[in-house]
Amino acid sequence: MYSFKVSSHVSFPLEGLDMRPFLAKESPSQVTTYDLLSVICHHGTAGSGHYIAYCQNVINGQWYEFDDQYVTEVHETVVQNAEAYVLFYRKSSEDSVKERQKVVALANMKEPSLLQFYISREWLNKFNTFAEPGPISNHTFLCQHGGIPPTKYHYIDNLVVIVPQNVWEYLYNSFGGGPAVNHLYMCTICQVEIEALAKRRKMEIDTFIKLNKEFQAEEAPTVILCISMHWFREWESFVKGKDNEPPGPIDNSKIGIMKGGHVQLKQGADYGQISEETWLYLLGIYGGGPEIAVRQTVAPVDPDSLHGEKKIEAETRAL
């Protein structure tokens, strides 16, 4: 298939790109103007070539050309006349700039405070780069009980920033959200839940392995039941710790088909074979169904009954 590169120049503004005419009427955004932050350019043809980038230092407003390991200062007219491939804009707001300057000024006051506050590093990064960072969201490092989840406690310093009381109060009054955090502690409730979950996983997988070994040792099992591999893979991911949430009820609906008033195995279905004991164990925990058997118990034949049937057959033939 033949392809070619469109090299037509596309003009674009460096500042003040107003997107308000293109926003939905119900959009909550109050800031609709954008300033150019970076440009990716491609030199060459559709089949081969070389990429460079122009990026602006937002602190001093200087533009730079990035070409492999070479970084060079360029004038903004070079950027504006570039053959742009991808344009990166960010929201522009004088109010957000003033907000950041105010926070820096408050932090530099070194005002003694009786309390220090922890704030989400993720949200603070939004505040430093977004025109509309939204409410403070400390739930990114807190559990539902208000403590630090045990899984995050060992790297909590990477998730939070300490700010003085005056900075916290200014940010909270300006953006809302929260909650306020003055003390970091590992949540014991979560720890108990994690230990209980680990115990449950071990119990289920150990029991399955035991029952499955017994099933494999049977030379002629009287009953073999089917289980959806889709559900089984979800359960396996849970007991092996790959998924935090347990699977829902056993769902064999996609591997079965109703015939003669009974659910039978669908041809070509993705299923596994398990023993009746394993089925009852999993069913007792998760519920669901339906039960689908590929080999049912066959009642032993009574020799006397068989002899009687042969006698009746012989008498019938004699008649």
Automatic annotation (TrEMBL):
Chain ranges passing through the membrane: none
Protein's UniProt keywords contain Repeat: yes
GO molecular function: cysteine-type deubiquitinase activity; zinc ion binding
Subcellular location field: Cytoplasm, Cytoskeleton, Microtubule organizing center, Centrosome; Cytoplasm, Perinuclear region
Main subcellular localisation: cytoplasm
Start and end residues of each USP domain: 1-92
InterPro entries referenced in this protein's UniProt entry, alphabetically: DUSP-like_sf, Papain-like_cys_pep_sf, Pept_C19_DUSP, Peptidase_C19_UCH, Ub_carboxyl-term_hydrolase, USP, USP_CS
Keyword Repeat in record: yes
Enzyme class: hydrolase
Record EC number: 3.4.19.12
A Gene Ontology biological process term: protein deubiquitination
Residue ranges constituting the DUSP domain according to the UniProt record: 94-187, 196-298
Catalyzed reactions: Thiol-dependent hydrolysis of ester, thioester, amide, peptide and isopeptide bonds formed by the C-terminal Gly of ubiquitin (a 76-residue protein attached to proteins as an intracellular targeting signal)
Swiss-Prot/TrEMBL keywords: Cytoplasm, Cytoskeleton, Endocytosis, Hydrolase, Metal-binding, Protease, Repeat, Thiol protease, Ubl conjugation pathway, Zinc, Zinc-finger
GO CC list: centrosome; perinuclear region of cytoplasm
Family under the similarity heading: Belongs to the peptidase C19 family. USP20/USP33 subfamily.
Protein name, UniProt field: ubiquitinyl hydrolase 1
